[in-house]
Structure formats: structure tokens, C-alpha cells
Amino acid sequence: MTNSNVVLHVADVHKRFGGLHALADIDLQVEEGQTHAIIGPNGAGKSTLLNVIIGKLAPTSGAVVFDGTVLTGKKPYQINQLGIARVFQTPEIFADLSVLQNVMIPALAKRDGAFKLNMLRTLESETEIRAEAEHMLEDVGMISRREMAAGSLSRGDKRRMELAMCLIQRPRLLLLDEPTAGMSRHDTNTTIELLKKIKSRGMTKVIIEHDMHVVFSLADKISVLAQGRIIADGTPDQVRGNPKVQEAYLGGAH
Amino acid sequence: MLTMPRNDLLLFLGFAIAVLTMPIWMAPFGAAYPDLLQRFMIYGLFALGFNILFGLTGYLSFGHAAFFGVGSYAAVWSMKLLTIDALPAMIFALIISGIFALAIGYVSLRRSGIYFSILTLAFAQMSYNLAYSVLTPITNGETGLQLNINDPRYLDRMFSAATPSVPSPTMLGLPLTGFTGFYFCAGFLIIAFFIAQRITGSPFGMMLKGIKSNQTRMNYTGFNTRPYTLAAFVISGMYAGLAGSLLAITDPLAGAERMQWTASGEVVLMTILGGAGTLVGPVIGAWLIKYFENIFSAINENMLARFWDFLPDGLDHAAVVVSAKFVGEGWFLTLGLVFVLIVVFLPGGIMEGVRRIASWIDRNRKSTPKSASPKTQPAE
């Protein structure tokens, strides 16, 4: 069932909250190097699906398999150590630390693992980690803000920094939960540009989004979720052409 | 490996000098006597360690006095059973308080926020009650554990005969009384400060700050935060144990009241008053509170009458009556007022006040062109 190209396999996942069937019969295969978008109206179960993948929620039945490893039952930090990073709908950052420190911390997690009693070194002596972080910030165009407190950044910059925090770990799979939610047009566009830029690096991405502009400019493959079920699957053109999808979700907009 | 950034080194040297010269610069404040200065050192050490958990990691423990008390008991027992020398007593106290902190931390750290605080408070009150009544054979209950002429002191007996009187603690034969006792404690405060500084500046310290700032992000960044918080808990518990053992060494009596919740609350006050999350702040907070406790509580109405003597008759009497409420037994009133003022106007404690003054001076100096090099202030 799983072919060699598939890096993430969501296999027959069901999720119930009491009487609510939030996810039903979800079967999703994400191929290596692709950007796979999951779209759907509010309440379709997009965020639930993402939380099941990342280990925040346990599926009622079914399993999530990443590169041959079953993720179900693992803790978020274990899932991250396997090479999965996540961008949140509201940026989860270290608001009281500097931008540079924000990016250095994930680099240390990548190098030192889930726990290391690293008390004898000073942060200043971590020159490779610092150089790596500075390089990353240069990449996302934030090097001039490296000494600023992260909490004082604009929303768009917080998102860019959060992306840098994920990218510095060179994850095999990047999960993005509505990366442009609540952003101005300008910030949305810079974020799309950045995502396009990292796309060329061959990182696998799963992106949840309701902004069609974002989805169609980034995705290789789209799955359409409605009422907890996948109702359509395919390339952007196939999905755009699918009458069922058009009728239900895109009809008004396109 | 043990190189230090220049600013850290300056801070360390400044701190060490300030501590060692305390008998001189505390004299004008009437606090330059060894007994009080020792307490400054001991409670400074206690607050310094507490800050590693509260200031750095963001976990507010309301039961740290338990470790302080355990350290005291362990030290007295070492001096009763093994030797009157201070070093084994301290090592023993460090080990016992570390184990104790490991057990309490392991359970308490399953929760965070207010639930964590309540759990630590519950454990500390349990410890207090155990010490006060249940474990009387170990703690000597209400009376408190003290040295006795009949104590075995097995290690000492191997080298010399029993002394005719109760011995007082020594370090390698040096009696720890008067200013020797102060410098003994000061040495350990300085070492402890150095270690706290290293922890704060290390990648491990960075992780603790990350946990305080955003634990969710830490988890999704691949960190197992539990061992980090547990390590911070144990380290700060051992600091408390060390402080407790020093108190037992300079005054060989361990009582249960040391573990009561008021004692746990006091170290929280010290840390917030001085500035949680800063290195020097908690120590200054501890000094201030101990100063108030000893100096303000010693002021009586006669002293106040002399102080207000310059006022006209009647008025001076009123001044004495009003101000008497704030001294002596009422020193807590003064402390409470100071605490309220600090928290309302300087939420970052005394250290925030220092920072504000420093940046104000800096701004004024900036008017002269090209003065200091524009230093970027790291976000903290």
C-alpha cells in the first residue's frame, strides 16, 4: 500500500469527540518533496487532522505513519526529533528572547537531542550554532532584527522568524497551519515568496489553508476536506476543475 | 571551556568584591556585625538558587523552605554523628536535599502554573508537620535539633578524645565564629553566584529561559522539557539545602519552623523584590529583607522619640506613635508597604529600577556626541 515515495501516510484515521465525528476515514499520502495542501471550509476538520499528525490528538482509530515509523502515541518532542517541524496558526515563539536566540534554540535541539545537561559551555562559545542561526536569519531577511525581542516583531515578521526556527532544523516534513491567517496582503505575499523560496529545497510540506490564492500558488497536490471527509484529491488543476469542489467551496470565489 | 564573556567576568568580580567588603560598607547602616552579615550570605544563597527555578524556568515553588530545613537537619546530624567539621555537614546536606528535591520535583512538575505551586506548598507543609511532630526522633520536634555533649561524632572520636563541652563547628580545625564565619559563608555565596552565572549563560540556561517563555514551542521544537525542569528544581533545591546547612553550621540548631510556609513565602518575596530572573536581584532582595527584619525590628519607641525630637511638642509625640507601628513588631508593615510599592511601580524589582536609572544616565550622556559605543541590549 505504501510506495517508496510516500513519506507521510495518514491511514484510515477516524477521530470522534463524543458524538461528533470530526474525522472520518481519512486516507492521505504525502509524497517526498511535494507541497500538499489541505483545504476546506471552517469546521471541516483541518486543524484536527493536523493535530492528529503532530501527536497533539490521538486518533480514535487508524494510524499516522512517517517514513516507516508510527507516530500515533508519540509525544510532540519525539515527533519533532524524527524530523517534523510545525508552524502554528498563531506564531508560537519565545517572546521575551531575542530573535537570534529564538533561532538558536531549535538549532540546539537538532544538535543535542531532546535533553542534554549542557551547563559547562557558554552560549557565546556556540559559534557554529550562532553562525548557522545568523545564516538562517539572513535567508529569511531578518538579520537586521536579530537583537530585537521577538515579542516586539510585527505579525508577519513573527511568522517569518517561526519559519526560520523550523527551517534551521532542516526537517524532512514541515507542517504549516494557516501560515497567512490574519495577515495583511503585504505580509501574505512576503510569506508566499518565502515559502516558494524554500520549496525549491525539496522539503516536504503539508499546508492547511483557506486562502485560495496561497494554496494555488504553492501546492503540488490538494486534498479537499469537508465535514471530516476527503471529498476530492488531486493537482490544483484537477481540484479546480472538480465540479463537486467548485460547487461546494470555490463556486462563489472563482 | 571555562572562558567567560567580559561582561560576565566584570559582574562576577564586582559581586565578589561587594560581598567581601560588606563589613566595611555595611558599617554606616549599622549592619556590620558577623551574625547579620552571615544571614545576608545564607539567605542570598537561598534566593540565588530559588531564582534558578522561578526566575529562569518560570516555576513558582511555594515550598522551597522544605529543602532549606532538610539541609539544616542533615548538617546537624552530620555534626552529631560524624564530625564537627563543616565540610562533611555541607556535603551531606547537599546530597540529602538533592534527593529530597528529586522526589518532590518529580511529582510536582507533572503540573505547571498554580497547580505546581500548590503541590510544592502541600509537600512543604507535610514536611513541616513531619518535622514538627511525626518524626520527632529525627528532628527533636518543637525543641529543635541541636548538638549535645553526648553525641557520638564517630569520625572525631577516631582522632581525639571527647571534649568536655559541646564543641562549636569548625572547618579543618578553624573555628567558624565571628568574622571567620562570615567569610566562610561569603566564600560559598561567591562560588554559588559563579555557578548560577554559568548556568544562566549556558545552553542549558537558555533552554530554561525557553521553557519559561513558551513551553509549547519547546515541545514542538524537540525538547523533552520535563528533565530540564527537574534539573532546575533539583539544583535550586540543593542551593536551598546548602543555605540551610550554612545556617545550621553558624548556629547549630535546626528547628521545624524553618520549613514553614512563611519561610517559603519569604524567599519568593526576596526574589521578586530584587528582580526575578536577574542574577544579582534576588541576593539584594534577600539582603534588604534581612536588613529590615533585623534593624527595623530592633527600633523601639525611645529611639523614635530621639529621632523625632526636633519636632514641636505634641507633634513629636504623634510622630512617634504613628511611626512606632512600622518598627519593632510592626516591621512586617514596612516590608509589606515596600513590597507593594515595588511591585506596583517596578514590576521587575529593584534591578529594573537600577536599569532605568542606568539608561537615563546613558541617554543624558548621549547628548555629548559619540560618547559610548552603541551597545545593543540583549533581549531578556
TrEMBL record, chain A:
CDD domains: ABC_Mj1267_LivG_branched (cd03219). GO terms for molecular function: ATP binding; ATP hydrolysis activity. PROSITE patterns: ABC_TRANSPORTER_2 (PS50893). Keywords: ATP-binding, Nucleotide-binding, Transport. One of its GO terms (cellular component) is plasma membrane. Residues 8-252 form the ABC transporter domain. Pfam families: ABC_tran (PF00005), BCA_ABC_TP_C (PF12399). InterPro entries: AAA+_ATPase, ABC_AA/LPS_Transport, ABC_transporter-like_ATP-bd, BCA_ABC_TP_C, P-loop_NTPase. Signal peptide: none annotated. This is Branched-chain amino acid ABC transporter substrate-binding protein. The lineage of its organism: Bacteria, Pseudomonadati, Pseudomonadota, Alphaproteobacteria, Hyphomicrobiales.
Automatic annotation (TrEMBL), chain B:
Keywords: Cell membrane, Membrane, Transmembrane, Transmembrane helix. GO terms for molecular function: branched-chain amino acid transmembrane transporter activity. The chain crosses the membrane at residues 42-60, 89-107, 114-135, 181-208, 228-249, 269-289, 331-350. InterPro entries: ABC_transp_permease (IPR001851), LivM-like (IPR043428). It is a multi-pass membrane protein. The keyword Cell membrane applies. It is found in: Cell membrane. GO terms for cellular component: plasma membrane. CDD domains: TM_PBP1_LivM_like (cd06581). This is ABC transporter permease.
